[in-house]
Amino acid sequence: MEHGFLIQMLMMLVIAIAAIALFRRLGLPAILAYLVTGVVSGPSGFSWFSQAQMHSVAELGVVLLMFSLGLEFSLPRLWAMRRTVFGLGAAQVALTALVSALAAWYFQQDVTAAIVIGAAIALSSTAIVLKLLNEQNWLRRRHGELSVSVLLFQDLAVVPLLILLPLLASDGEALAYQDIALGLFKGIVVFVILMAAGKWALPRIFDEVARARSNELFVLSTLVVALVTGAFTQWMGMSMALGAFMAGMLLGESQYKRQLEADIKPFRDLLMGLFFISIGMLLDFQMVWDNWWQILLLLVAIVMGKGAVVYLLLRLGGEPIRIAATSAMTLAQVGEFSFVILALAVNYQLLDMSISTQLVMVAVLSMAIAPWLVRHSAELGGRLQSRLDNSPWQEPDIPEIKQKETVIILGYGRVGQTIARFLKVEAVPFVVLDLDPTRVAEAKNAGEPVYYGDAGKRSLLKQLGIRNSQTLVVTFCDSRSRENVVHLCRELAPELTILVRTRDDQSLQQLEQAGASQVIPESLEGSLMLVSQVLFQCGIPLNRILKRLESERRNHYPYLHGFFSGTESDFTLEQLHAVSLPDGAAAVGQQLCEIPWDKLKVDLKAIRRNGEEMAQWAGHWQLCSGDILLLQGKPRRVERAEQYLLQG
C-alpha cells in the first residue's frame, strides 16, 4: 500500500509540473494549476487522495504563507499610508463584506455562513495584484498606491478573521459578545507575549544562529520559529496561521528579513502548492456542472459588485473617473486568502460543502481573468473617462516630444544611464523607455525622465512623438527585440538617426539592414580604445590614429576579426588557423583560383613562403610544398578547408 501511495504522489507531482508549465505559457497564475491538479488527483478525478490526507501538510502551507506575509508587512509603511489604508481599505472591506453577507442572508444562508461568505468575498489577491502592478510599473501611480493601501488593510483584516472563525465554531447558535471579547483579549495577550519574544528573544536567537555560519541551521531555525509560534496560538485557542503571521511581522523589521524570506520561500511554495491542491480536491465537478449557470452569475455579480464598491468609494473620495475605474478593476477578483477562510470554515463546519465549492470555483475563475483585467485596467479606465468627458483618450504618463534636439534612449541599464548622465551635463534634453519596473521607479523618484514602456509597440512610439526627435539610441541587449525595434523606429521615422549598442558585431549587418544608422559593438570599441592609447604612446600622430579607427569602423572592423584559438579562448564566431602544406598535400601545385574558396566559406588572409609573408598574390599564384596559408572563418569551416587543402 505504501508503494502505491508513493506512485500516486509521484503522478500527482508530474501532473502539477505539467499544469504549471501550461498555465505559465497561457499567462495564468500557478495557483490555478495547483487547483486543477487537486481536481484531477482528488475524488472528482482519479481519487488518489482524500482531502483529509492532505489537510495536515496543507495547514503547514498556510502557516508558512502567513509567516511570509508577516515578513512583508511593514509597520512603518503601514503608518505612512495610514489614511488610505484605514480609510479606503477599511471602508472597502467593511462595505464589501456587509453587502455580500446581506446577499447571502437574503438567499437563505444563516448568519454565521453569511459572515464567512462576506469575509471571503471582501478579500482580493495580494500576490496576483502586486505582481501585475509591479510588472506594469504602476506601483507608484495613483491607482497603484490606492490598490496597495486596500490590499494592506485586507492583509491586516485576516488577523481578526483568524481569531473570529474558531469563536464562531464554538457557538453556532448566536454570536456571543462575551466570547468575542474574550477572544480579542486572548489575541491581545498573545500579541504582547510575542512582541516581547520578538523584541528580546528572537534577535538574540538569530544572532547566535548567524554566528554559526550554517545555512542549514538558519533554515531550520526559521521553520521552527514559524511552527512554534503557530503551535502557541493554537494552544491559546486560535489558529496556527495567526501566530505565524505575528512572528513574521516581528522578524520583518530585523536585519535578517531578506535571508529569512529566501530560506522560507522553497518550503512555502511547495507546501502552499499542496494547500491549493487540497482545495482543488474539495471541488465536486458534478456539482459544478449541475450549477454552472449559478457559478457564472455569481462570478459576474461578485466581480462587478466588488468593482462597484471600490469605484463608488473612490468617487466619493474625490478621485477622477479614470483612477476610480482602474482601481476597481484591479481589486475586483477574489484572493488566495479566501481559500484559507473557506477551508477553515468547512473544517469548523461553518459552511456547507456545496456553497464552499461554488465559491471556490468563483474565486478560481475570478483569479483566471484577473491578469487581463489588471493589464487592461488603465486603458479601459481612460476610455471610460474619455467617453464620459467626450474627450480623446491617451496614456497620460509619457509626454510627447516637442524639441527636435531631444534624444530618445531605449533601455536604462548601465549604458543607458551613462549616456543620460553625459547628456544632462551638456543640457541636451532626453527621454528614456525601459521595461524594468524597479529601475524605472527608482529613476522617477530621483526626477529622471524615465518611463515604463515597451519600445516594440507602435502606438507607444507614436505617442512619444518619435518623428519629432533627431536621435534615438538603443542600448538593450536582446538581439531579436533589438532588430524589430530598429526596423519599427526606421519605419516610423525615416530621417531619424538610430544608434545601436551591441556586445559584438555578430548582428551588425542585420541591424544595418533593419535601419540602424550606426552600430557600436561594445567589445570591439573597447579594443579600439586600447589600441589608440597604445599607438599614441608609441608616438603615432593623433590624426593618423583617428583615421585608422574611422577606417576600422567604416569597414566593419576587419582587424578585429579572426584570432588564434587556445585552450581557454572563446572565439566561437571566427578564428585564424595556419595550415602548412607538406609534400603530397592535395593543394600543392594548384593555383589559388582553382581552390573553391566560396564553397569552403573561409578567407585567405596571408601566405608565408620561406619564412616571409607575401605582400601580394593573385589568382594564378601556385602553391608549393612548405607554404603556410593563414585561414580565417568559423571553426568547422576552417577545419573542412584544412581537410580539403591537405586531402582534396
Account of the 3D structure:
- The protein is of the alpha/beta class and 648 residues long.
- It folds into 3 domains: 2-384, Na+/H+ antiporter like fold, CATH 1.20.1530; 407-554, NAD(P)-binding Rossmann-like Domain (Rossmann fold); 569-647, Alpha-Beta Plaits (2-Layer Sandwich).
- It is built from 26 helices and 11 strands.
- It has helices at residues 2-25, 30-41, 51-72, 75-80, 82-106, 111-122, 126-135, 142-170, 177-212, 215-235, 240-251, 257-281, 285-290, 292-316, 321-330, 336-347, 353-389, 414-425, 437-445, 458-464, 479-492, 508-514, 522-537, 542-554, 597-600, 635-647; strands at 407-410, 430-434, 450-452, 471-474, 497-502, 518-521, 563-564, 575-580, 603-609, 612-613, 628-633.
- Strands 3-2-1-4-5-6 form a 6-stranded parallel sheet, sandwiched between helices. A 5-stranded mixed sheet has the order 7-8-11-9-10, with helices on one face.
- α8 (142-170) runs parallel beside α16 (336-347) and α16 packs antiparallel against α17 (353-389).
- The longest helix is centred in the middle third of the chain and has 37 residues, at 353-389.
- The radius of gyration is 33 Å and the shape is elongated.
- The N and C termini lie far apart (68 Å).
- 38% of the residues are buried.
Key terms:
alpha/beta, Alpha-Beta Plaits, 5-stranded mixed sheet, 26 helices, 65% helix
